[in-house]
């Protein structure tokens, strides 16, 4: 039986985790940035990578966020149906957000809708954003936190294409979006593409695709081929780090999909920036936790 103390323990752990995620990039992103840095030959682009790594080093040493825009906090929850604190989780996630906002500190990025007044806490109507998946027969919970900055959210788009547009039309939409808007999102980018029926299903899948660990491919060979084709095409544009031109535009392109209505093809695009601050933590029913995304990090 879960107690108030258990809930507070989870608030404390999650608050510290959100704080860490604002300051240290996950292992997959660090590994890919290191790889792209080595590949870069353009002197200005090499300098930008040096500055990025110096920035990350200083963020860690000085205990400060890696970018001034710490984003809107978003949670992607894969909750076991038997996890004991499920009924209190929304409050726990909101409290943890408020706690990290004070400790990190995070920039105050929740502007209340319609009133256009900053709430001052990073909490507001439907913020933090929470997306739930219930996992049958499990008592564990996996919580992914993402810090959605303004610049990297700006290229986000979704569209519903007529059936004849096909996957070629979907890829054209991705290219048009990144060519027009990608430079605003501080490349090298992680591009998530969602294929669905309507604009919301495609958009949500594109966010989930963007959050997939960098370095993974879709298990379906046609989706993996699409990822490779878009990645090669976007890299050929040569946006380079921070868009000043260079060898690569992207860290990765990830595609996710779902069965769709035969008359339409929904396509969503979500972009993550070089400072791609996401992290995954898993709790068991006794609130023992494991940090999946940042190996060796202690809270
Ligand atoms: S796009 Fe990313 S790195 Fe650039 S300012 Fe926004 S949050 Fe920071």
Summarize the structure.
39% of the residues lie in helices and 22% in strands.
How would you characterize the overall build of this protein?
39% of the residues lie in helices and 22% in strands. The protein has 8 helices and 11 strands. By secondary structure, the chain is an alpha+beta fold. The chain is globular and about 55 Å long. The chain starts with a helix and ends in an 8-residue tail after the last strand. The chain has helices at residues 4-23, 27-39, 43-62, 89-103, 150-153, 166-181, 199-211, 221-237; strands spanning 72-80, 111-112, 117-118, 129-135, 141-148, 157-161, 189-196, 250-257, 265-272, 278-283, 289-291. It has 2 domains: 4-24 and 66-149 and 277-291, 60s Ribosomal Protein L30, Chain: A, CATH 3.30.1330; 152-272, no CATH class. Helix 1 crosses helix 4 (89-103) and helix 6 (166-181) runs parallel beside helix 8 (221-237). The strands form 3 sheets. The protein has a 5-stranded mixed beta sheet. It has a 4-stranded mixed beta sheet with strand order 6-9-7-8. The structure holds iron/sulfur cluster. Iron/sulfur cluster is lined by residues 67, 69, 149-152, 185-186, 273-275.
Topology:
Layout: H1 4-23, H2 27-39, H3 43-62, E1 72-80, H4 89-103, E2 111-112, E3 117-118, E4 129-135, E5 141-148, H5 150-153, E6 157-161, H6 166-181, E7 189-196, H7 199-211, H8 221-237, E8 250-257, E9 265-272, E10 278-283, E11 289-291
The protein binds iron/sulfur cluster.
């Amino acid at each position: 039986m879960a107690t108030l103390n258990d809930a507070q323990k989870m608030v404390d752990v999650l608050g510290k985790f959100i704080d860490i995620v604002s300051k240290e990039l996950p292992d997959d992103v660090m590994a890919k940035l290191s790889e792209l840095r080595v590949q870069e030959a353009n002197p200005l682009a090499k300098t930008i990578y040096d500055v990025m790594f110096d920035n990350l080093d200083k963020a860690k040493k000085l205990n400060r966020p890696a970018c001034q825009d710490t984003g809107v906090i978003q949670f992607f929850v894969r909750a076991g149906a038997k996890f004991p604190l499920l009924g209190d989780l929304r409050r726990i996630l909101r409290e943890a957000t408020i706690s990290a906002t004070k400790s990190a500190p995070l920039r105050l990025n929740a502007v209340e809708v319609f009133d256009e007044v900053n709430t001052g806490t990073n909490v507001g109507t439907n913020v933090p954003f929470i997306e739930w998946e219930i996992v049958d027969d499990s008592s564990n919970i996996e919580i992914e936190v993402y810090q959605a900055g303004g610049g990297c959210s700006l290229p986000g788009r979704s569209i519903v294409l007529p059936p004849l547009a096909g996957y070629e039309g979907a890829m054209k939409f991705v290219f048009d979006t990144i060519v027009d808007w990608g430079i605003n999102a501080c490349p090298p980018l992680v591009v998530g593409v969602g294929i669905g029926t309507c604009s919301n299903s495609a958009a949500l899948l594109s966010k989930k695709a963007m959050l997939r660990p960098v370095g993974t491919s879709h298990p379906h060979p046609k989706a993996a081929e699409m990822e490779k084709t878009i990645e090669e095409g976007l890299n050929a544009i040569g946006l380079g780090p921070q868009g000043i031109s260079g060898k690569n535009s992207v860290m990765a392109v990830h595609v996710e999909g779902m069965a769709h209505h035969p008359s339409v093809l929904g396509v969503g695009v979500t972009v993550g920036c070089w400072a791609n601050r996401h992290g995954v933590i898993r709790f068991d029913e006794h609130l023992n936790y494991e940090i999946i995304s940042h190996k060796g990090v202690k809270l």
